[in-house]
């Protein structure tokens, strides 16, 4: 009697969770996007490439009949955060806040949860890194205690969802998404599969029940959000919280925002009592001198849509070394070297026997080309040992041919300078919007670096064109 043949067993197909690349055998690194740990067995439906029709949750409607009032942004109670988000927190929206350890992510979200609760709206704060008692101690220190603020210390996804069902919050904070794990998924918390499962479950609950959700995300040593790249695609908003350990200033900027602009920043001061909003941070980047000193120049940089005054300082010291030093702090060193070369070639300033040090004040990171002319003026002032006039701001991008190019938002920058009491400005020729600048600001337009240096009364006669 013939033996029945055993049914063929379909060979597994492995697919990358990031880009969808498939292979017949498991590999640790995707051959397409080069991501590690993202290749896993593909589901039968994914291998078949088709899905059967299913019942819809809600029927499709004309866009004019879609109700939008429930999706309007609600003020969070923190003005600087509302500025970055484009008006406030959106019900049902999911926000991912990333930043280096110790920068103040948990402090910011605890303050947000407390202010949300003070408006009579229930809030649930789930901590996977601290106990509820530790969070309570930090809340007492920062004054973030309220009866409508609920705390839970959980690391299990199922328990987190149960807390959401019991508390029924309008705002959910998860600190952090890398510490929460699901028992139904293989891998350790923080792994690619676990993070994807946790984020998907939390986002689904937030969308279905209209809960504003904020997730804390860890970062890698390169500053990118840890975990699968798909996490940033799933959420509605990605915020980056930045700050130097040596400075109390913290900057909040949007990397992705479905509800508002991505060119706004929020400024905070990390004090003993928590994070304090800084609606006018200009004074943090400008030093205070009793008398004008050589080697200093004030410029106006744009952080998002916000003009900020910043001071550039330069120091030129004679040296006998065959290769003079060029050291920069807070500025692009390669761009500073280019500006010094332009100063030498077109203005006749000999820096071949000088060590030149350049820096920004207050830990500001100035990478805009608009600060080029301020760096050049500061270096010329330092070499000539002459001071620039008080109340002067300088704007402009410097080219290798010695020309000074216009920069964007010139009118906004100059209005901010005039508001803070500055009386004179050197700007590129053909700058737009100068008619909207207050008359109290005396404007000098220059076409090249020689005209810019000679426009300084204190430097005239010491720096001659080549």
Automatic annotation (TrEMBL):
<dbReference type="InterPro" id="IPR004504">
    <property type="entry name" value="DNA_repair_RadA"/>
</dbReference>
<keyword id="KW-0227">DNA damage</keyword>
<keyword id="KW-0479">Metal-binding</keyword>
<dbReference type="GO" id="GO:0003684">
    <property type="term" value="F:damaged DNA binding"/>
</dbReference>
<feature type="region of interest" description="Lon-protease-like">
    <location>
        <begin position="355"/>
        <end position="466"/>
    </location>
</feature>
<comment type="similarity">
    <text>Belongs to the RecA family. RadA subfamily.</text>
</comment>
<dbReference type="GO" id="GO:0004252">
    <property type="term" value="F:serine-type endopeptidase activity"/>
</dbReference>
<keyword id="KW-0863">Zinc-finger</keyword>
<dbReference type="Pfam" id="PF05362">
    <property type="entry name" value="Lon_C"/>
</dbReference>
<feature type="short sequence motif" description="RadA KNRFG motif">
    <location>
        <begin position="256"/>
        <end position="260"/>
    </location>
</feature>
<comment type="function">
    <text>DNA-dependent ATPase involved in processing of recombination intermediates, plays a role in repairing DNA breaks. Stimulates the branch migration of RecA-mediated strand transfer reactions, allowing the 3' invading strand to extend heteroduplex DNA faster. Binds ssDNA in the presence of ADP but not other nucleotides, has ATPase activity that is stimulated by ssDNA and various branched DNA structures, but inhibited by SSB. Does not have RecA's homology-searching function.</text>
</comment>
<comment type="function">
    <text>Plays a role in repairing double-strand DNA breaks, probably involving stabilizing or processing branched DNA or blocked replication forks.</text>
</comment>
<keyword id="KW-0346">Stress response</keyword>
<keyword id="KW-0862">Zinc</keyword>
<keyword id="KW-0547">Nucleotide-binding</keyword>
<dbReference type="GO" id="GO:0005829">
    <property type="term" value="C:cytosol"/>
</dbReference>
<feature type="domain" description="RecA family profile 1">
    <location>
        <begin position="70"/>
        <end position="219"/>
    </location>
</feature>
<dbReference type="InterPro" id="IPR014721">
    <property type="entry name" value="Ribsml_uS5_D2-typ_fold_subgr"/>
</dbReference>
<keyword id="KW-0067">ATP-binding</keyword>
<dbReference type="InterPro" id="IPR020588">
    <property type="entry name" value="RecA_ATP-bd"/>
</dbReference>
<keyword id="KW-0378">Hydrolase</keyword>
<dbReference type="GO" id="GO:0000725">
    <property type="term" value="P:recombinational repair"/>
</dbReference>
<dbReference type="InterPro" id="IPR027417">
    <property type="entry name" value="P-loop_NTPase"/>
</dbReference>
<protein>
    <recommendedName>
        <fullName>DNA repair protein RadA</fullName>
    </recommendedName>
</protein>
<dbReference type="InterPro" id="IPR020568">
    <property type="entry name" value="Ribosomal_Su5_D2-typ_SF"/>
</dbReference>
<dbReference type="InterPro" id="IPR003593">
    <property type="entry name" value="AAA+_ATPase"/>
</dbReference>
<dbReference type="Pfam" id="PF18073">
    <property type="entry name" value="Zn_ribbon_LapB"/>
</dbReference>
<dbReference type="Pfam" id="PF13481">
    <property type="entry name" value="AAA_25"/>
</dbReference>
<dbReference type="GO" id="GO:0005524">
    <property type="term" value="F:ATP binding"/>
</dbReference>
<dbReference type="GO" id="GO:0140664">
    <property type="term" value="F:ATP-dependent DNA damage sensor activity"/>
</dbReference>
<dbReference type="InterPro" id="IPR041166">
    <property type="entry name" value="Rubredoxin_2"/>
</dbReference>
<dbReference type="GO" id="GO:0008270">
    <property type="term" value="F:zinc ion binding"/>
</dbReference>
<dbReference type="GO" id="GO:0004176">
    <property type="term" value="F:ATP-dependent peptidase activity"/>
</dbReference>
<keyword id="KW-0238">DNA-binding</keyword>
<dbReference type="InterPro" id="IPR008269">
    <property type="entry name" value="Lon_proteolytic"/>
</dbReference>
<keyword id="KW-0234">DNA repair</keyword>
<dbReference type="GO" id="GO:0006508">
    <property type="term" value="P:proteolysis"/>
</dbReference>
<feature type="binding site">
    <location>
        <begin position="99"/>
        <end position="106"/>
    </location>
    <ligand>
        <name>ATP</name>
    </ligand>
</feature>
């Amino acid at each position: 009697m013939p033996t029945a043949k055993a049914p063929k067993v379909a060979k597994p197909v492995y697919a990358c969770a990031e880009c969808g690349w498939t292979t017949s055998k498991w590999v640790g690194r995707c051959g397409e996007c080069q991501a590690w740990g993202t290749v896993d067995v593909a589901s039968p439906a994914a291998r078949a490439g088709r899905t059967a029709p299913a019942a819809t949750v809600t029927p499709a409607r004309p866009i004019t009949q879609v109700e939008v009032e429930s999706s309007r942004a609600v003020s969070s109670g923190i003005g600087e955060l509302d500025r970055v988000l484009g008006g406030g927190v959106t019900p049902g929206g999911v926000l991912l806040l990333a930043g280096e350890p110790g920068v103040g992510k948990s402090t910011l979200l605890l303050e947000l949860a407390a202010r949300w609760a003070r408006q009579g709206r229930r809030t649930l704060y789930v901590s996977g890194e601290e106990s509820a008692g530790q969070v309570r101690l930090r809340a007492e220190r920062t004054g973030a205690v309220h009866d409508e603020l609920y705390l839970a210390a959980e690391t299990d996804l199922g328990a987190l969802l149960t807390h959401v069902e019991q508390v029924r919050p309008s705002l959910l904070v998860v600190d952090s998404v890398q510490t929460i794990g699901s028992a139904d998924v293989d891998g350790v918390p923080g792994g690619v599969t676990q993070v994807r499962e946790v984020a998907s479950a939390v986002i689904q609950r937030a969308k279905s029940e209209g809960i504003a959700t904020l997730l804390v995300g860890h970062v890698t040593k390169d500053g990118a959000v840890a975990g699968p790249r798909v996490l940033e695609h799933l959420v509605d908003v990605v915020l980056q919280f930045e700050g130097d350990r040596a400075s109390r200033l913290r900057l909040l900027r949007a990397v992705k925002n479905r509800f508002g602009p991505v060119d706004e920043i929020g400024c905070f001061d990390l004090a003993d009592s928590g994070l304090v909003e800084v609606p006018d941070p200009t004074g943090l980047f400008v030093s205070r001198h009793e008398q004008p000193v050589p080697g200093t120049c004030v410029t106006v940089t744009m952080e998002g849509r916000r003009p900020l005054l910043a001071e550039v300082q330069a120091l030129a010291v004679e040296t006998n070394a065959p290769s003079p030093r060029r050291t920069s702090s807070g500025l692009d060193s390669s761009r500073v070297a280019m500006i010094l070369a332009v100063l030498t070639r077109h203005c006749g300033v000999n820096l071949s026997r000088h060590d030149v040090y350049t820096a920004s004040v207050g830990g500001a990171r100035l990478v805009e080309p608009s600060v080029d002319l301020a760096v050049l003026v500061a270096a010329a002032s330092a070499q000539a040992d002459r001071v620039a006039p008080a109340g002067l701001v300088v704007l402009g991008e410097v080219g290798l041919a010695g020309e000074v190019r216009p920069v964007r938002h010139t009118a906004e920058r100059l209005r901010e300078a005039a508001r803070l009491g500055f009386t004179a400005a050197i700007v590129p020729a053909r700058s737009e919007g100068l008619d909207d600048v207050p008359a109290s600001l005396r404007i000098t337009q220059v076409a090249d670096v020689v005209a810019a240096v000679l426009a300084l009364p204190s430097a005239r006669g010491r720096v001659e064109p080549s």
